[in-house]
UniProtKB/TrEMBL annotation:
This is Thaumatin-like protein. Pfam families: Thaumatin (PF00314). It comes from Triticum aestivum (Wheat). One of its GO terms (biological process) is defense response. InterPro entries: Osmotin/thaumatin-like_sf (IPR037176), Thaumatin (IPR001938). Residues 1-21 form the signal peptide. SUPFAM superfamilies: Osmotin, thaumatin-like protein (SSF49870). Keywords: Plant defense, Signal.
Length: 212
């Protein structure tokens, strides 16, 4: 009897831990499909097969491992649906590309998350990253709601105008809550503890919303 009760409690604890695991949510509001590309840093586990196609207003939910994880998220566009994983993507497989940089479960019991939206490698789609269900600290929404392809100079346009190489000053002026050089940081403090979810919204500007 006691052994059965212990087993039930163990199962319930495991289910509770799974239900409270930190999630990565990607919400596509772009007027075209995207294929998220989630790449772990060297030596860390993959959390996505990178085969999902997100049509307009579609959502992809992934689960981070319960221990330290770090990696990058990009949004591929114009991919060939006939292959798995998608191939022949117009943007997102390589620069220029908007990239979210994410670290979770850092600093032991502090369970810190660190995140940014980087335009160091260029720009292809507007991207905003915001923590949800936070455990404490300062967790600002970061990123860019502006379509920087529209005013990109002809010399910096790529992929037939669907991506932009820069320059960094142009990016920073239009999107100050992004990182535009290897040494750049956002002008807002960040110390985010134990978020239950990290949410990436693509093309948030298409809803008329503004990034605070």
């Amino acid at each position: 009897m006691a052994r059965d009760l212990a087993f039930v409690l163990l199962v319930l604890a495991a289910l509770a831990a799974f239900s409270s695991a930190t999630k990565l949510t990607i919400h596509n509001l772009c007027p075209h499909p995207v294929w998220p590309l989630v790449t772990p840093n060297a030596g860390l586990p993959s959390i996505s097969e990178n085969t999902a196609r997100l049509d307009t207003n579609a959502i992809l939910s992934l689960t981070f491992p319960p221990t330290f994880w770090a990696g990058r998220v990009a949004a591929r566009t114009g991919c060939n649906d006939g292959t798995s994983p998608p191939r022949g993507c117009f943007t997102g497989d390589a620069p220029p590309s908007t990239v979210a940089q994410i670290t979770v479960h850092d600093s032991g019991n502090l369970d810190l998350a660190a995140y940014s939206v980087s335009l160091v490698d260029g720009f292809n789609v507007p991207m905003v990253l915001s923590p949800q269900a936070i455990g404490g600290g300062q967790c600002p929404a970061l990123g860019c709601v502006v379509d920087l392809n529209c005013d990109c100079s002809p010399d910096n346009r790529a992929a037939e105008g669907t991506a932009c190489r820069g320059p960094a000053g142009y990016f920073k002026n239009r999107c100050p809550l992004t990182r535009t050089t290897p040494t750049d940081v956002e002008p807002v403090p960040q110390s985010c503890r134990a978020p239950g979810e990290l949410k990436i919204v693509l093309c948030q500007s298409s809803t008329g919303a503004e990034l605070a």
